[in-house]
Amino acid sequence: QLLEISLHRAIKQHNFQEFEVYYQPIVDIASGKIIAAESLLRWHSPELGMVTPGEFIPLAESTGLIVPMGKWVLKRVCEQIKIWRDAGINSLSITVNLSVIEFNQPDFIQKIIYFINANDLEPHYLELELTESMIMQDINSAIATMNKLQSLGVKIAIDDFGTGYSSLIYLKNLPINTLKIDRYFIHNVANDPQKSAITKALIQMADNLNLHVVAEGVETEAELAFLRQHHCSAIQGFLFSRPLPAAEFENFLLTNK
Ligand code: G
Ligand code: G
Ligand code: MN
Ligand code: NA
C-alpha cells in the first residue's frame, strides 16, 4: 500500500525525479570492447530508500503505471544515446527492457518513432529486450509489431533466453537479432555438465540462426573462459561491471577504449 502510494506520487507528482537509468556494459569477448549496454531502471525513494525493479515493476504493471514509466525510460535512453554519440562515443547500442503491457500499447511503434526522430538517432543503436513469454502471449500480433520495429531498423533481443517455452520452429521465424542466455545457465557453467551442455547448444543454435548471442550474469573467470572456448560472442555481468549511473558508465567507457 505504502509502496503503491509512493510509486504513484513519484510518477504523477514528482515527475520521475526519483528515478535513474543505470547502464551495464555488454562486452565483445574477442575484442574485449564494450559494444552495447543494457539500461536498467533504479528508484531512489525518499521514504522507502532504494527500491529494486523486482519490487516496483510488478506493481507498475498491475497499476498501469508501467506505461508512463516505460515511456520515460525510452525517452531517457534515446536522449542518452544522442548525448554519447554527440560526445564522439560511437557505435554503442543500448538495450531497453519492455513489459508486455508497453509492447501491446496501440501507439507503441509511434512512441519509438517519435523518440528516434526527436533525437535524430540511427535506429540500430536502440535494441528492445523481449522475453519469450511476452511474444508467445499473442504470437501473431507480436510478430507484426516486431516486423514493424525491424523495418524501422530497431533491433530486437530475446531476454532470459532458455527459461521460456518458445519452440525452435517459432524462433527460426521470429524477426530477432540477439539471444541473451539467461544467467541461470551461466552461473557455474564450467563445472555443471548440464548447464555446459545447454549453453553450448544455445550458442550453437544462435550461430546457426545468424543471431548475436550474449551470455548474462557472467561473474567468474571460469565462466568467461568457458564462453570464450565455445565462441559465445558477448558477455554481460558483474565480472566486468555492475550496472552503473550514466556518468560512471561514461568514465568506465573512456578507460576501457
Ligand atoms: O537490474 P535488476 O536486476 O534489478 O532488474 C530486475 C528486473 O527488472 C529485470 O528482469 C529487468 O528486466 C527489469 N527491469 C529493469 N529495468 C527495467 C525497465 O526499464 N523496464 C522494464 N519493463 N523492466 C525493467
Ligand atoms: O531479466 P534481466 O535480464 O533484464 O535482468 C537483468 C538483471 O541481472 C539486472 O537486475 C542486473 O542487475 C542483473 N545482473 C547483471 N549482471 C549480473 C551478474 O553478473 N550476476 C547477477 N546475479 N545478476 C546480474
Ligand atoms: Mn534484460
Ligand atoms: Na535476462
UniProtKB/TrEMBL annotation:
GO terms for biological process: phosphorelay signal transduction system. GO terms for molecular function: cyclic-guanylate-specific phosphodiesterase activity. Coiled coil: none annotated. It comes from the Bacteria. Keywords: Phosphoprotein. The keyword Transferase does not apply. Transmembrane segments: none annotated. Residues 1-257 form the EAL domain. This is EAL domain-containing response regulator. It comes from Komarekiella delphini-convector SJRDD-AB1.
